[in-house]
Write a structure and sequence with these properties.
Length: 753
Amino acid sequence: MGNLHATTRSAVIAVLTLSLIAASAGTAALAEPGSGVGPTSSAESSAEPTIEAEPPSPTESASATVPPTPPAEPEPARQEAPPTSPPGEGGSPEDAVSTQVASAEAVAVYRFWSDTFQSHFYTLDVAERDSVIANYPKSVWQYEGAKFGAYQSQVAGTIPVYRFWSQVHNAHYYTASEDEKNHVIAAYPVDVWQYERVAFYAYGTQDALAQTQVMAQFWSPTFWNHFYSSDPAEIDKVKAVYPAHIWTFEGDAFRVPISYAPAAPLPPSGQVASDQAAAVYRFWSDTFQSHFYTLDVAERDSVIANYPKSVWQYEGAKFGAYQSQVAGTIPVYRFWSQVHNAHYYTASEDEKNHVIAAYPVDVWQYERVAFYAYGTQDALAQTQVMAQFWSPTFWNHFYSSDPAEIDKVKAVYPAHIWTFEGDAFRVPISYAPAAPLPTGGLSTVLAATLGGLSGKYSVSVRDLGGTRSTVDIGGETMQEPVSVIKVFVAYAVLDRVDLGRLTLATRTRSGVTVQDCLRVIIQVSDNYCHWDLVALVGEQALNDQFWAEGYRGTVYAGRSGGGTYYPAKLSTTDDLALLLSRLYRGELLSPAMSEHLIALLETQYWRSKLPSGVAAGVPVGNKTGSAWTADGWFHSDAGVVSSVGGTYAIAVLGSRGATAAGVRAIGRVVYEHYNGPIATAASYSSLNAVTAAPTTFYRHASTSAPLGTIPAGVRLEVYASARTWYQVVYNGRYVYVRMSALLDAIAYPRSAR
């Protein structure tokens, strides 16, 4: 039976082939099955017939000046009845013949591959193809050419192939099944599978039409998209190379015509100067909720070297642009806002002039041309559009050419966070590779210093000058800040004084005033007043304020270990350095309250750490801290150094045996980075207070009987405190005196305010 079927199939092929050749020669030729044209033996039954055309006559080939005679009109070809199967045999699908395939109406279907999304995209829309080529880099959509033919509108016998798009999977999904289409629409939300339209029309698989080919269908359970191919070699390779979780063969999806119109010409490349384009680098600030763009490599390296990731997180090269103007490009202007801590970009000359005229320089200060790009009016090939978003909340722009990123921003963020404004400008798809990242600088020196110290340290340094540069090592690490966190509470309380919710005379739950509690938590690091002030403001209110103002690593988490006054808490050196830099720049409090807190910091009693790591006479406003754990004592400190070489905030949080000497050594390295070697280091006596008059002293705070009197003018070491009672060392004994009985015994260097 197999030989009979094979002979019949070969004979039919011969009939069709001879008919086509004869028609091209101007005559209608017919061949009967079994007439000698097809194979005559079982050994030859699978071979295709060989047709040898007669060579042209010498006259025809040599007659270049005589136009050829038009061919005679072909005679109508007789319709042959389709071959029948032998008696008792059903017809094989391979035996079916149809002359109804509308090859003349078929057009090319173009295929793209995305290395980014791990998916294919199919379209027969030439405008859509050209738009994808023009607007997406090859890493997002790589054009692979015309891969098969299909129909733009329905012709007899065809069925629609439907197309969906997924924002979740960043992929298209295709199906020729009406039931499957309806199921997907009903079962999935639009962000998972959004029905778009009929992609094209093709034939079903139930009829093996001649002049058509089957499209093999694969499904990726990993990337949630289909892959189609009619190329046997490609199909075999996918089956052989990829495991089932990457590409699972599902069978034949539909049939498409073998012949179709040639692929449309690709769009012209235009005059895009890709060889002159440089990388534009992007940063994200979790602190300021804004992006920063620069193609200046030195500026990029300075930001990376001098800012912690919480302030400016480097995101890499995101698109290409031009450092100087090339033909057809326009400038993209850059502004900086001290008020909003953000940059603002515009490609509009009118908008640039309006911003300069309408806003004071502290709101929007024009800086320079950020880079040059193409306008949106010309859809140049080899360029891509940059989508523009505006944040009414944070007052800055966000730009992206990444379709997945654009779709995510549109889908996830409400309009008050990111509002899509349209296409801003066009940039070249190809550009020079990103410059190597920097090494060295203060970060390197600090890392080397930390490597030689006992204990563990996190460090952040923030320049308060024009660059506002920052360096950090472990700056984002949330850890126990010990008493250093009290500067956060002091700020929050004084902020409420500015707002009129509290006054300095407000009494805490213990009866001690806000003013006195602020003094003792900063100057002598009192724990009781610290907890009183936390209770006065409220832990949740503190946490909400810290989060809203960008201190994302600072939090109070209730009392620790069942204690009555000591709160569990976390912070980061990045947060501490940011708070102190804002305080000294006058960005947190009114001038009066700023000066009040800075005065407390610059007259803080315990000065063996950061204040002793600078040159003599240099003002340092700091808040120190230490604690005892199973690993022993560990020390921390944070402050602002006002030196000739620059004013900077520095925060050092220690753990696992970090020492006061280690904190001091870190402070000295940073100071010498700004100012050079120290000739004479600052040194402070541990005798930090002096009695103003004869002073009664007690064994315990407030409740014990007097033990005696300390004469006036005696210098004492304040060792600890219990709210407004100070524990001092007198004649080798630890005793208590009233805070009001003591004066500062240290000549504190004060910064010029």
